[in-house]
Amino acid sequence: MSWKLEIYRAFFVAFGMFEIISNLLFLSLKNGINMAAKQHQEIPKEATKKQLKTKVMLMFIFGLLFFLIGITSYMLHYVNKTYFLLVLVTFALYAVVEALYYKYWKTVGFSTVSILFLLVFLL
Known about the structure:
By secondary structure, this protein is mainly alpha-helical. The chain is built from five helices and no strands. It has helices at about 5-30, 30-40, 50-75, 80-100, 105-120. Helix 1 (about 5-30) runs antiparallel to helix 2 and helix 2 packs across helix 3 (about 50-75). The radius of gyration is 15 Å and the shape is globular.
């Protein structure tokens, strides 16, 4: 297996676990959405609590996807490039939609990084 796939696989597990833990914490704590605003600073400060909660739930779901795909590839000793690609494409699309919705420079940066991450995977 190439070093690039090993890096992606490790990233999927680490990023996924981070998103699962942090966003589950935000969803379960009384003032968790306020804490989420500090982590998800790519969202404009004018975002409503409902918008932040939606962001937290979506990032939790993406965390699950990243983690499950990554950990499964470790257990099977095989990287299914199609699954990795599907998750990366879906995440990049989500980031682009978010950037178009907010029209905020940090969300554009977030989507650019997501697209670059996808392009590096494809190369």
